[in-house]
Amino acid sequence: MIEIIVLFIGGAYVGWNIGANDAANCIGTSVGSGLISYRKGILLVAVFVMVGALLQGHNVMKTIGKGIVTEQLPVTAVLAALLSAGFFVTLATWFRLPVSTSQAIVGGVAGVGFSTGMAVNMTKLATIAQIWVVCPFLTGLLAIVLYKLLSLPVRKIQRPELWDRVVGVLLVGSASYVAFSLGANDVGNSVGPIANLGVQARWLSLLGGGALALGALTFGHRVTETVGSGITTLDPLSASAAQLAAALGVHFFSVLGIPVSTSQSVVGAVVGVGLVHGIRAIERRRVVEILGGWVATPTVAGLFSFGLYRLISLVFG
């Protein structure tokens, strides 16, 4: 019983980190465009993250719980994976970097799988890694298309009050959809490793979704600034296109049960709408820093979980 409680705390810690780091993916563009306040946006995130987690969080949960390591991991290995992923994302959040919690937890689970000598599904890992590469390009292209499609009718609106209303609905609606997709995809990253304990998926989704919402409310402001204005300057229309593109990409892969990076999806979409205005509109140095974080995340989390499990095994036998 104590072991299960400890794992639940570990899962909640990862969920809190996801909310703290990935809240920016939901409202960073909205806050950066100046059309919605941070306080209102973060409350919106908390609500729709919970809805997404409860309605569709089970798909990715199955992949994280059973798809990467084909055997039942010991409790200490699960704890090592959770702590490794959570600690890495905590550091990234402190330094205002939008890293991928999906990459961190997949790397952590794979790391303990190798450390225990259990069978790691390399085909599944390769598929996930390939989708990580494709996803930001996909959302970037989709953002460009959506921006051009949205700008044609919206730019023709002459009345300022109608313009504000239409763009406001687009912005809030797309932000809510990103939050829903975040809950659907990333709740599996927080509680997926403990999905084999016999606890009902709905209760795990509630735990993970609640932790995500709490992380967004308490520590989500740091990375929001980076996504909102650190990559490119966003107006409300481009912010709406970026958010909608990212949400569509994440939701699509959530239905397939594939843990993708909400961070990569949003950053790819933001870069896409930035490129509409030319390459000079992009803060290339910041983009390079973010790319470096994406490469380092699964590697460092995997190595750390590998070593942490070995250390725990030595200390506790």
Describe the structure.
The structure is a single chain. The chain is mostly helical. It has one domain. 82% of the residues lie in helices and 0% in strands. The protein is built from 12 helices and no strands. Helix 10 (236-255) packs antiparallel against helix 11. The radius of gyration is 19 Å and the shape is elongated. The chain starts with a helix and ends with a helix. The model has no long low-confidence stretch (mean pLDDT 82).
Q: Fraction of residues in helices?
A: over 70%
Please report the total strand number as a whole number. 0
Number of domains: 1
On the 0-100 scale, what is the average pLDDT? 82
Distance between the termini: 19 Å
Number of helices: 12
In terms of quaternary structure, the protein is single chain
Strand content: under 5%
User: Secondary-structure element order, as H and E?
Assistant: HHHHHHHHHHHH
The description of the largest β-sheet is: none
- Using only C-alpha atoms, the radius of gyration works out to 19 Å
- How would you classify the helix and strand content by structural class? mainly alpha
Based on CA inertia axes, which overall geometry fits? elongated
Low-confidence stretches: none
